[in-house]
Design a protein that fits this description.
The chain is built from one helix and no strands. The chain is mainly alpha-helical.
Length: 62
């Protein structure tokens, strides 16, 4: 049984898991910031709208 090889493989898997978690965290932060920007943009567009009732409802189906 190759203990050194097994140890290196487990360390590599652990590193890859940590890297994946860090990338996912960064992606979630970016998505949250983009969502907040979208909400602010929609709020400002509603304030500038000539007819505030037009476009106030969004029908989304998944």
């Amino acid at each position: 049984m190759d203990v050194a090889g097994l140890s290196m493989a487990l360390a590599h898997i652990s590193d890859m898991s940590q890297i994946g978690t860090a990338v996912l965290s960064k992606a979630m932060d970016t998505s949250e910031a983009l969502g907040e920007g979208l909400v602010q943009m929609m709020d400002s567009a509603m304030e500038l709208s000539v007819n505030p009732n037009v476009g106030s409802n969004i029908d989304i189906r998944l």
